[in-house]
Amino acid sequence: MExxxxxxxxxxxLKTRFPEDVKGTREFRGQVSVIVRKDRIKEIMEYxxxxxxxxxxxxxxxxGVDYRGRKEPRFEIVYQLYSVSHQHAIRIRAxxxxxxxxxxxxxxxxxxxxWLERECYDMFGIRFKxxxxxxxxxxxxxxxxxxxxxxxxxxxxxxxxxxxxxxxxYDLAKENRAYEMRQDG
Length: 185
Description:
7 strands; two-stranded parallel sheet; 5-stranded mixed beta sheet; Beta Polymerase, domain 2; alpha/beta
């Protein structure tokens, strides 16, 4: 069966199983996304993981999206799922409001979600309830803000809000340029 048809079949099964939680489906360039409410994300993911005919054993990716000024709710968490045994894939998109950017963790379903959820937390400020170790993973612990949010400043003219050790890092990099190897033709 064609991948798009399989994904559409899975989307229909989700609508039947979770009628109040599936808000809709979207297709773009042959890929199917299922848009769900965040409230039962863990149950939806457990269903997709544990049901033998779907068997989504591999969580390819978890990422955040900021739709600031374009749609509400402002944020989405996007889960890319793959079934190794059946070789089919689907995308699940859970909407997360700006006022309460919290969604249940799926680390209990896929261990690999651990670092992916931490990255979403670090970059977008979306908290994952029940995560075993939710802390920054890319930015320093004392960093203020979330760099992938659309309202994050693009320039480093933050004055007092600038990361206090940044100047030190720049100065050290400038100092160490003397030790760089030159590659002449």
